């Protein structure tokens, strides 16, 4: 993929609550705009997901809620597989699970966006009006920031948007030192006590990634601040930045303008160089207008991530209807473009996640929105069971290609935990070296999903417990190496360290399985790993679901519930 193409990935989903409207994005090349409602149902689509959002064809974008209706905007090129003239397609939902398509809303139409309407965010002004800020590409191929407002505020579907005659509102100039090729993805704006709005825009200077800060009194005239809100050396271009407050005492979400006691702030960036996202937790000094990560934060690609698998161009929004902050992210295919064109679609959205600050304040926690549980059926429960070393236990009774499974392990005996070599600091590398088929002491134990009967194919999501001095270290892995007999796709293994003390706490794992995606949540949402897989043997004979333990020490499953998942209505 060319660089140009990659940039486009970070495009647009728009979410809006009563207080705040937001927008994230993911670009793409598409085939026919008209195929919006036709193509998805074609037979022989074994890898098409059943309850993850995706347009009928092509690449995707994100969601929004206004007057109780969530909106999702995604992008199409009406002129076919050649990139250009991107428009915003649009779906709405009342539950973030089932989606109805509408006509596309925003088209390139002004000099300030004639070569593309890229990612942005939405903000609800105090009078209740939503406003979108989005990146446009002008004929000089410069990235500039534009504004659009709904044409008819009485229309809860927000079908039509009108662009500001002042566009572009923010642009690179020789004076402001902004790199015109590295200036995109404005965030939801926040209002300071001085009654000025702020927004940040992803950028870089040389290798320093940065969040350029702009301020405005009227949301139309924006002035660049002298310093960025935040920057970090050697991180490269920051795409889709996100900046929001989190509550220190509760799991509730906060409106983006909230400051004061009991509030910390988060900055998340999507790194163009590595296609990873990382975040820090810190303090927003609204007088100096700077963000300072907490002491000890790792402010680069080695930092904390929402998801340690595939996950990019994400955005959060405050869902004021349910007092929660919701995270949406985009997950691309692991197959190549030839295959994607053949199947006629590419890219899906992760299940929306509620996101909040962990009570100890050191990391965020994420959990699939509760609405997704409406799709559960045919519950299967396993009684408390000892999984002996080297054993595999089938969980039958659920449709294993389309399932939700939640398991909790209880470990009593830690003697066999392997010693963690201090040089093993990268969990992904550790998971790659110590995959499911490498026997250990305490672990690997976990789930084998999308598995064929004879275990020729499976995706293994598991834990392994190590000892370091007198503490235990929990590794969580998603091992795709045996996910398919098909060799032609990316089967990278992913890993994360899970900040759970297995002596005091039980170890939980939940996986959402949907044909070609496995989204896993360890430690009740302390670490998430999303993987794309394309099994071949499970297509006709059916997939199986197993719990397994390939360590020498036995582990107890204290609880396991699994459900078949119904198909959601998606476009
Ligand atoms: C605005 O939307 C409302 C609600 O859908 C509709 O009744 C009304 O006719 C619309 N007004 C215009 C000018 O289109
Ligand atoms: C501006 O950003 C582009 C895209 O990353 C890069 O190729 C170029 O070198 C940058 N220019 C400067 C002056 O840093
Ligand atoms: C990230 O920053 C840490 C210091 O916090 C440093 O030790 C590490 O080398 C950096 N990693 C990368 C990938 O730049
Ligand atoms: C998309 O998928 C490819 C292949 O797995 C991967 O190399 C790339 O990093 C992904 N891009 C993003 C933005 O996740
Ligand atoms: C367990 O380990 C054995 C020996 O390494 C291996 O042959 C087997 O495939 C492993 N099981 C799983 C589920 O990976
Ligand atoms: C993509 O994968 C297919 C199927 O494995 C292979 O035949 C083709 O050469 C690949 N195309 C590219 C562009 O790598």
Protein described:
The chain is mainly beta and 571 residues long. Helix content is 4%, strand content 42%. The strands form 8 sheets. Strands 26, 27, 29, 35, 36, 37 and 39 form a 7-stranded antiparallel β-sheet that branches. It binds 2-acetamido-2-deoxy-beta-D-glucopyranose (6 copies). One 2-acetamido-2-deoxy-beta-D-glucopyranose binds next to loops.
Shape, principal axes of CA atoms = globular
Number of helices: 4
CATH homologous superfamily of the largest domain - what is it? Glycosyl hydrolase domain, family 43
User: What is the domain total for the residues?
Assistant: 2
Helix content: under 10%
Listed once per kind, the bound small molecules are:
2-acetamido-2-deoxy-beta-D-glucopyranose
The second-level CATH architecture of the largest domain is 5 Propeller
Task: Please report the distance between the alpha carbons of the first and last residues.
Answer: 28 Å
Strand count, sense and barrel status of the largest sheet are:
7 strands, antiparallel
And the CATH topology of the largest domain? Tachylectin-2, Chain A
> What would the average pLDDT be, to the nearest integer?
88
Layout of SSEs?
Elements: H1 3-8, E1 13-16, E2 21-24, E3 62-66, E4 69-76, E5 87-93, E6 100-102, E7 117-124, E8 130-137, E9 143-150, E10 161-163, E11 183-184, E12 190-191, E13 197-205, E14 208-216, E15 222-224, E16 230-232, E17 238-247, E18 263-271, E19 276-285, E20 290-293, E21 312-319, E22 324-331, H2 337-343, E23 348-349, E24 353-357, E25 364-368, E26 376-382, E27 385-387, E28 391-394, E29 402-410, E30 418-419, H3 427-433, E31 445-451, E32 459-468, E33 471-479, E34 494-498, E35 507-514, E36 517-522, E37 527-532, H4 538-541, E38 544-549, E39 555-565
Parallel strand pairs: 30-32
Antiparallel strand pairs: 1-2, 3-4, 4-5, 5-6, 7-8, 8-9, 9-10, 11-13, 12-13, 13-14, 14-15, 14-16, 17-18, 18-19, 19-20, 21-22, 22-23, 22-24, 24-25, 26-39, 27-39, 28-38, 29-35, 29-39, 31-32, 31-38, 32-33, 33-34, 35-36, 36-37
The protein binds 2-acetamido-2-deoxy-beta-D-glucopyranose (NAG) (6 copies).
Residues 9, 275, 310, 312, 332, 334, 490 line the site of one 2-acetamido-2-deoxy-beta-D-glucopyranose.
């Amino acid at each position: 993929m060319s660089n140009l193409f990659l940039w486009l990935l970070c495009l647009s989903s728009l979410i809006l609550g009563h207080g705040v409207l937001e927008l994230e994005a993911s670009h793409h090349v598409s085939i026919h705009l008209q195929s919006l409602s036709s193509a998805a149902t074609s037979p022989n689509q074994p890898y098409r997901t059943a309850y993850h959002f995706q347009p009928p064809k092509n690449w995707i974008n994100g969601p929004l809620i206004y007057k109780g209706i969530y909106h999702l905007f995604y992008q199409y090129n009406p002129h076919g597989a050649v990139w250009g003239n991107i428009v915003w397609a649009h779906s709405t939902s009342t539950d973030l699970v089932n989606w109805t398509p509408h006509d596309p809303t925003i088209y390139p139409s002004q000099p300030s966006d004639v070569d593309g309407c890229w990612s942005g965010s939405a903000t609800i002004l105090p009078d209740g009006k939503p406003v979108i800020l989005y990146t446009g590409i002008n004929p000089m191929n410069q990235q500039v920031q534009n504004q659009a407002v709904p044409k008819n505020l009485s229309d809860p579907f927000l079908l039509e948007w009108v662009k500001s005659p002042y566009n572009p509102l923010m642009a690179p100039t020789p004076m402001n030192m902004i790199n015109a090729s590295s200036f995109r993805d404005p965030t939801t704006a926040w209002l300071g006590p001085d009654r000025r709005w702020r927004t940040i825009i992803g950028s870089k200077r040389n290798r320093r990634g940065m969040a350029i800060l702009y301020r405005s009194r009227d949301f139309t005239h924006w002035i660049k601040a002298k310093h960025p809100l935040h920057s970090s050396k050697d991180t490269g271009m920051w795409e889709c930045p996100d900046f929001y407050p989190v509550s220190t005492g509760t799991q509730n979400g906060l409106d983006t303008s909230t400051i004061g006691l009991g509030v910390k702030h988060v900055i998340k960036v999507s790194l163009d160089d590595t296609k990873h996202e990382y975040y820090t937790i810190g303090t927003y000094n609204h007088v100096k207008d700077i963000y300072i990560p907490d002491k000890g934060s790792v402010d680069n690609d080695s930092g904390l991530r929402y998801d340690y698998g595939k996950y990019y161009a994400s955005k959060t929004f405050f869902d004021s209807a349910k007092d929660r902050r919701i995270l949406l992210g985009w997950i691309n295919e692991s197959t190549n473009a030839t295959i994607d064109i053949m199947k006629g679609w590419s890219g899906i959205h992760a299940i929306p996640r509620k996101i909040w600050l962990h009570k100890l304040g050191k990391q965020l926690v994420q959990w699939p929105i509760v609405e997704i549980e409406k799709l559960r059926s045919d519950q299967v429960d396993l009684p408390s069971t000892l999984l002996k070393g080297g054993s595999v236990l089938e969980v039958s009774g659920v449709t294993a290609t389309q399932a939700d499974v939640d398991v909790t392990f209880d470990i009593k005996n830690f003697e066999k935990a392997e010693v963690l070599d201090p040089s093993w600091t990268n969990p992904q590398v550790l998971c790659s070296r110590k995959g499911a088929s490498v026997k250990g002491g305490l672990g690997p134990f976990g789930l084998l999903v999308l598995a064929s009967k004879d275990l020729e194919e499976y995706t293994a999501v598991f834990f392994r417990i190590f000892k370091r001095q007198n503490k235990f270290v929990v590794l969580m892995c998603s091992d795709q190496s045996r996910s398919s007999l098909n060799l032609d796709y990316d089967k990278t293994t992913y890993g994360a360290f899970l900040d759970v003390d297995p002596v005091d706490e039980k170890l939980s794992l939940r996986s959402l399985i949907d044909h070609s995606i496995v989204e896993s949540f360890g430690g009740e949402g302390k670490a998430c790993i999303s993987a794309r897989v394309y099994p071949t043997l499970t297509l006709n004979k059916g997939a199986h679901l197993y719990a397994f333990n390939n360590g020498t020490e036995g582990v107890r499953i204290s609880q396991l519930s699994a459900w078949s998942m119904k198909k959601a209505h998606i476009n």
